[in-house]
Amino acid sequence: MKKFEEKKFNIPTLKGISAKTIEEHLKLYSGYVKHANLIIEKIEEMGKEAEKNAYALGEMQRRFGFEWGGMRNHEFYFAHLEGGAKALGATSALKTAIEAEWGSFDAWLARFKTIAMTRGVGWAMLYYDKKTDRLVNAWIDEQHLGQLIDASPILCLDMWEHSFVADYQPSGKKNYVEDFFANLNWETAEMNFSSSKR
Ligand SMILES: [Fe+2]
Questions:
Q1: What pLDDT score does 24 carry?
Q2: By the 8 A CB rule, do 197 and 128 touch?
Q3: Which of 143, 103, 101 is nearest to 124 (CA)?
Q4: Does the structure show a pLDDT above 90 at 198?
Q5: Which of 43, 58, 98, 154 shows the smallest number of beta carbons within 10 Å?
Q6: Using one digit for the tens of pLDDT, what is the confidence trace for 140-162?
Q7: Which residues contact 41 (CB under 8 A, 6 or more apart)?
Q8: 140 alpha carbon to ligand 1 midpoint, in Å?
């Protein structure tokens, strides 16, 4: 059976977010890949007696979106932190699209930071919808509840407490968001944008 493969990330020293936090966080990501694979494997196995295992199968199937979200969202997130901080290109297609949608980059950034401060665990996300050629912001509960179907993730910010509490304390959530943008390699978001338009 085909397996999802755990990706490796080369993350430099970051502002505010410690190497220890990244190390622990990567272990969580690894767990999501493992469990996404495990669910598929178990479904295959228990599906041989589908009627007998109906309840367990249903629950595992329900859980798959959670593990998948934990796997894929983190792949976007850690990629954003690779390669060192790089500013969004002043004349880039992504900047132009953000300005077209929200009037200015700063207006979008303020909105996105507000979304990141949503109470509870989840993700602040910027998506591109090819059908309407628009960028859309969203808040995702947990990893998967509220994902926008058929839209492509461009920027993914992990707002689970495990991403910042050890370095910032619960009260330092806002500083973590600021530091995420200070560490962000915008080229990765630009690449997500260009590949989503194809
Ligand atoms: Fe996370």
A1: 98
A2: yes
A3: 143
A4: no
A5: 58
A6: 999 999 999 999 999 999 999 99
A7: 1
A8: 12
C-alpha closest to that of 88 among 196, 11, 181, 13: 181
Contact (Cβ atoms closer than 8 angstroms) between residue 70 and residue 160: no
* pTM, two decimal places: 0.96
Whole-angstrom distance between the N-terminal and C-terminal Cα of the chain? 30
Helix (H) or strand (E) holding 107: helix 105-116
The Å distance, Cα 185 to ligand 1 centre, comes to 18
128 C-alpha to ligand 1 centroid (Å)? 22
pLDDT tens string 67-103:
999 999 999 999 999 999 999 999 999 999 999 999 9
| pLDDT higher than threshold 90 for residue 23 | yes
**Centre of ligand 1 from the C-alpha of residue 7, in Å:** 15
Output the CA 162–ligand 1 centroid distance in Å.
6
SS3 158: strand
CB 186 within 8 A of CB 91: no
List pLDDT tens digits, range 27-56.
999 999 999 999 999 999 999 999 999 999
Tell me the C-alpha distance between 16 and 118, whole Å: 21
